[in-house]
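pasting for ref
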Amino acid sequence: MNIATPGNTAELLRSHGLSARKKYGQNFLVDRSILEKIVDAAGVGAEDTVLEIGPGLGAMTQLLSERAKRVIAVEIDKQLAGLLKESLADCDNLTIFNEDILKWDAAGYARSEGIESYRVVANLPYYITTPILLSLLEGEAPLSGITVMVQKEVADRMQAGPGTKDYGALSLAVQYRAKASVVCTVPPSCFLPRPAVDSAVIRLDVYPEPPVSCRDPERMRRLIRAAFNQRRKTLANALSADPVLNISRESVQHALKEMGLDELIRGERLSLEEYAKLSDVLK
């Protein structure tokens, strides 16, 4: 059964007494050509272990299981997880977890199962897209690539550069781990129910090594988060206000001066390379 049509998706939900749940941000893709485009863009091959986040009704899960060595699907909705176990019982390379992806230990599972890397593929729930992406990019789970459907404005933020309105902590987290490219944009008509915004499929090619050198990446990430938590403040004021960093405004101003930057500069003006250098100078 081709689940990815409006009629078949509606019938599958009806026959199981289900409906899209707003609390989980459920918008089911009902255009098979988009699903195929996502899987193609992800470059899933016969030796890959795929981590699918929020498989929903399993329309994309079917395609992934046909191409990958193994598929790990993490679904927070208990009812949908049960439906998937029933409807995809013949996919012997599929493991389904009824878990919250933000709490599920992807790194620990990879170690216990001898998984060298995950290729992440997902139609992400829009209400927690950024936390999911940050947990993947900043976590310890081994990744070979990420291809996800996100809200178009999130895709814009992921590619934004210094000084632009979309530039932020997510932009820098992406730049530190991967090269981002938009595969396609997707209108609301491709979903059931229809979201109120346009969507985009974005592919992140994970770097073997980060493009910038930094002695303490976690400290750099903390600097970035502090800078954009109060982005309208000067960088010196924003960083000195962070209780975890425990650095003075004068220390930040001195570091900026040493780097040849304006002491009153805001965090949105610094590049990834400059944040890496600032972290090392402050250290």
